[in-house]
């Protein structure tokens, strides 16, 4: 295990718990010592051995040597591979389990890119694992990964061979983009309840718990089986948690997400760049990213607020907003629509990248990986995806699927009501409103871009298609009108 921070350390303990001896390497000897000390409470310390140099590390391993990286994204992985290179033999396997940029994984070739989801807690107890790369290397490590991966409600491991090249890291990257869309939608719902409906934290927790027992976020209990939607489940916990001063922890947290700005997290940025590069509309994900960026610069927001002489505060949702119980149910259905749309948008990004890179992505495997141990765990949605992707030739654009379309159509009225009421009451609802617009323009064959196309032709001679012609591909039109003599 090279890199023994929160994720790498958690995975090292997880491997040790499954009877595997783990050789540790980290620039900080203190980090390795802390990890070994933490292993003592579980009696695992004898399965962890620290090594200061690469030669010593490699000498401690059998054949083939299996390396797992948990490193910062960027050039650090190149430096480590270069340091290991003199001590590697043919058949050794490097698994890059960092949140690495897929292009670096693709470039390195020798590495198997492996996305690991669920945060540091899942890394310790069993994460969702998303490996991609060379078939022979994956065959060597798959039994190990199946042993330590999270298990679904039927006991099946949430790991699978995603595809070739950098596909493992790419799918994990988009997973995080989907995650951001879902997190934003749920956070928007929380603020509507808190500031709009004047609900206390415990009351909101009860509402999230209700969502977690009925409907599309359902959690069904059997002996040792837990199904549901992870973010909704932890939402109830977050609202209820108090500190040692009897304060709600949530109440003292600043409205500032910095991980996209401080360099610790790149996947959200990369997934948005990929959506734009591949010409995939993904507004539920993209607007979620923009509010995170705005939130990071809180000092700037204070300066803007001063320039405006105040803020557009969320207003109470008075009697005009309707019966509270009905409003809460509409909020639930609106959030579900945003969750499902986030999956649709994310899978469209993956599909376009797969076509470009010829990774042969196994979408059934991707669905299984997302069953448990990951942040976007949503059993109702993945049940539908699993059914669709039983057919390896299924259309990957899920808006073409009758069941998905019906689900979104059923949720549309509630989503529309919440967005309309949110606009009226100044609610901050970027992902919810973007999801509504996404559904409107994705299903519409009479868009305002008709006028925009005329503008482009007027000043730029960009050409246009005629309504009387077949739709054709997204290619330059054949017609121009001379709107005004030069």
Explain the overall architecture.
By secondary structure, the chain is an alpha/beta fold. Helix content is 52%, strand content 6%. It contains 19 helices and eight strands. A four-stranded mixed beta sheet has the order 3-4-5-6, sandwiched between helices. It has a two-stranded parallel sheet with strand order 1-2. Helix 9 runs antiparallel to helix 10. The radius of gyration is 25 Å and the shape is globular. The chain starts with 5 loop residues before the first helix and ends in a 26-residue tail after the last helix. About 1% of the residues have low confidence.
What labels would you give this structure?
486 residues, alpha/beta, two-stranded parallel ribbon, 19 helices, 52% helix, 6% strand, globular
Shape: globular
Structural class: alpha/beta
- Mean pLDDT equals 92
Q: Give the SSE order as H and E letters.
A: HEHEHEHEHEHEHHHEEHHHHHHHHHH
How far apart lie the N and C ends? 68 Å
Placed side by side, the strands forming the largest sheet appear as 3-4-5-6
Radius of gyration: 25 Å
Question: How many individual β-strands?
Answer: 8
- Main sheet specs: 4 strands, mixed
Share of β-strand residues: 5-15%
Oligomer: single chain
Give the uncertain stretches in residue-range form.
Answer: 221-225
Helix content: 40-55%
Annotation field: number of helices: 19
């Amino acid at each position: 295990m090279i890199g023994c921070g929160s994720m790498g350390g958690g995975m090292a303990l997880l491997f040790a718990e499954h009877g595997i001896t783990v050789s540790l390497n980290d620039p900080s000897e203190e980090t390795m010592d802390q990890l070994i000390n933490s292993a003592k409470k579980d009696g695992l310390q004898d399965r962890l051995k620290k090594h200061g140099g690469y030669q010593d590390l490699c000498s401690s391993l059998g054949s083939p040597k299996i390396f797992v990286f948990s490193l910062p994204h960027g050039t650090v992985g190149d430096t480590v591979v270069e340091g290991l290179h003199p001590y590697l033999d043919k058949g050794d396997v490097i698994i890059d389990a960092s949140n690495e940029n897929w292009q670096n994984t693709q470039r390195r070739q020798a590495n198997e890119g492996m996305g690991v989801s669920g945060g540091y807690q899942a890394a310790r107890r069993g994460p969702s694992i998303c490996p991609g790369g060379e078939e022979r290397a994956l065959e060597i490590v798959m039994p190990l990964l199946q042993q330590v991966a999270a298990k679904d409600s039927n006991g099946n491991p949430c790991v699978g061979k995603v595809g070739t090249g950098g596909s493992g890291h790419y799918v994990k990257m988009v997973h995080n983009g989907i995650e951001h869309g879902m997190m934003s939608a749920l956070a928007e719902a929380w603020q509507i309840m808190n500031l709009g409906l004047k609900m206390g934290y415990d009351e909101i927790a009860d509402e999230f718990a209700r969502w977690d027992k009925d409907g599309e976020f359902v959690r069904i209990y059997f002996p040792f089986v837990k199904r549901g939607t992870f973010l909704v489940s932890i939402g109830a916990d977050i609202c209820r948690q108090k500190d040692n001063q009897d304060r709600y922890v949530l109440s003292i947290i600043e409205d500032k997400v910095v991980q996209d700005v401080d360099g610790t997290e790149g996947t959200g940025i990369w997934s948005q760049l990929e959506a734009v590069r591949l010409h995939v509309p993904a507004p539920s994900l993209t607007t979620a990213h923009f509010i995170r960026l705005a939130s990071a610069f809180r000092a700037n927001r204070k300066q803007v607020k001063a320039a405006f002489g105040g803020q557009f505060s969320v207003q109470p949702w008075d009697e005009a907003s309707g019966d509270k119980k009905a409003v809460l149910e509409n909020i639930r259905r609106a959030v579900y629509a945003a969750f499902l749309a986030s999956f649709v948008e994310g899978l469209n990004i993956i599909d376009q990248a797969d076509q470009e890179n010829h990774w042969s992505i196994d979408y059934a495997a991707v669905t299984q990986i997302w069953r448990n141990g990951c942040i976007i765990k949503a059993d109702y949605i993945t049940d539908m995806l699993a059914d669709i992707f039983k057919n390896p030739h299924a259309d990957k654009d899920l808006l073409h699927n009758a069941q998905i379309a019906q689900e979104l159509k059923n949720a549309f009225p509630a989503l529309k009501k919440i967005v309309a009421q949110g606009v009226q009451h100044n609610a901050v609802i970027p992902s919810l409103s973007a999801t509504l617009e996404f559904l409107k323009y994705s299903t519409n064959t009479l868009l305002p871009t008709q006028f925009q196309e005329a503008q482009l032709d007027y000043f730029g001679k960009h050409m246009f298609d005629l309504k009387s012609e077949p739709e054709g591909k997204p290619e330059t039109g054949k017609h121009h009108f001379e709107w005004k003599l030069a």
